[in-house]
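FIELD: query
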Amino acid sequence: MAELTQNPKPLVRNLRDLIVTPWALIVAILTLVAILDPGNWTEIVTFAGKALAHTGQYILFAVLLLSYLKATGAEVMVARAFEGRETRMILLAALFGGLAPFCSCEVIPFIAGLLALGAPLSAVMAFWLSSPLIDPPTLLITAGALGWPFAIGKAVAAVALGLFGGFAVRALMRGGAFVQPLCEYKPAGCCGNEPKKDETPVWQFWKESERRTRFRTEFVHNGLFLLKWLAFAYVLEALLVSYVPADLIARVVGGEGVVPIVVAALVGMPAYLNSYVAPPLLAGLMEQGMSAGAAMSFMVAGAVSSIPAMAAVWSLVKPQVFATYLGLGISGAIFAGIVFQMI
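FIELD: result
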């Protein structure tokens, strides 16, 4: 008791850290829903659970891959692959990002793994921005609802936004920015046992006790970190879907000119409209007078990030990287909308 009285700060800090953890926030949110809207509690929990289960396969694959690379020492090969090839990596990341079937939340585990393995932030940012925008199913759905010109325009915007973000971050890094982009997310063994550049990977890591321990530690640490933040993200997503009608959000961005395009990007960034729901809804709004440029801006901004995705992004990177990501996403969406409107 004397120790607690004489030194209360650690206790206060521990209580604060416990209260603001994603798990505590999830419990608090679901408790409020159970009290204020009990009839909707099951639907929200089911929605969040199904979304997390779907993304869980990506989390599992990404964490297993990261743990395997760390345990074998093969992450040095990743580092070597990026040496002197940043421009090429930005180009490839932006191009292949458009083919990856990830939404803004599903791409988080892979972004975390790439950053933890030392991939340059510029190439990661290119993939990060372009990947959620388009994939083969989304391309077909968009073409069916809004026409091939709109679908092709979105695909071009995806690659262009990735290139824009990648080279912008590259320029900022050359000026001394983003020396250490990661926040608290880091490999569990990053403070020691780091492989040297000339270390030879041991592919059958399970034959060595130390490497088995590293694999297990990496898997638990990184898996729990991603799981808690994505669980929180999907609970937020469930709240948005349940209590904020998508058509109500989209109607705010009606009208002609540049101003609706800017408003569409600002509203679309935090709104939740996935790539399968957005095209039919925007098709109906365009029939009611919404401009094509505003629709493109809204769709790009909404795909790049949303409140659920931003919650996960915030947990990964430092504030300046987070702000840069949002700035690139909004400015890129506005530019895509203006160009598409002109065309």
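FIELD: remark
The radius of gyration is 22 Å.
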